[in-house]
Specification:
By secondary structure, the chain is of the alpha+beta class. The protein has helices at residues 2-24, 50-55, 109-113, 123-130, 165-168; strands spanning 27-32, 35-41, 60-70, 78-92, 97-104, 116-120, 132-140, 150-158, 177-184.
Length: 199
């Protein structure tokens, strides 16, 4: 009996370790000669009331933001770069489809007019796109020093300030940050040897 409990305890610990590892790997950074890139696929629950608001035809704006910082022992951390990506999700009752508009940078009306648009058949499909990014460049190579303790503060939030006033004090009042993480920036890859350097 004791062995069975020990086995279950070890199995539970292994499962928890795998789950925490998967959560920790929800967002990853890649660094190359052109800059720093973020890839993420979140498995985070979205707030209660979101679907009800969307089904009323109210657009909801999801903001991805990444701030790249360098630690300094003598002063506050230095911000080296900031990137923002806005995903606007709207339900279209006439076609019963979901429309996504994706903008890099501040999402004003002019930017949204020239945004990348996608139409999807279900809310689940649309939210899968909302909660993921693939090789999104958050810093240029020349913004990143070769050495130093660098990190990226990443968050995804719902901008309730862009909701109509009744929803700001209703369903959307408690909406805010959905995901937040701090990720260490990898060291730059070693330079490729030139023809003169090759043996």
């Amino acid at each position: 009996m004791a062995r069975a409990w020990v086995g279950l305890w070890l199995l539970g610990g292994l499962w928890l370790g795998v789950a925490m590892s998967a959560w920790a790997q929800a967002a990853q950074l890649q660094r190359d000669g052109s800059g720093l890139y973020l890839s993420a696929r979140l498995d985070t629950e979205l707030p209660d009331g979101l679907e009800d608001v969307l089904l009323k035809g109210v657009p909801v704006h999801f903001i991805w933001q990444a701030d790249v910082r360098r630690s300094r022992w003598y002063w506050t951390d230095q911000r080296l770069a900031t990137a923002q990506r806005v995903v606007r999700l709207t339900y279209q009752p006439l076609t019963r489809r979901w429309r996504l508009s994706i903008v890099t940078g501040v999402a004003d009306e002019a930017a949204l007019a020239g945004a990348l648009h996608r139409n999807l058949d279900s809310l689940d499909e649309a939210l899968a796109v909302v909660k993921s990014v693939a090789r999104w460049r958050i810093a240029l190579a020349d913004e990143l020093p070769e050495a130093g303790d660098l990190r990226a503060d990443v968050q995804m939030r719902i901008d309730s300030g862009l909701l109509p006033r009744p929803f700001q004090v209703g369903a959307g009042a408690d909406w805010g940050v959905v995901y937040r993480a701090t990720i260490k920036v990898p060291e730059p890859a070693p330079a490729e040897p030139t023809g003169a350097d090759k043996p």
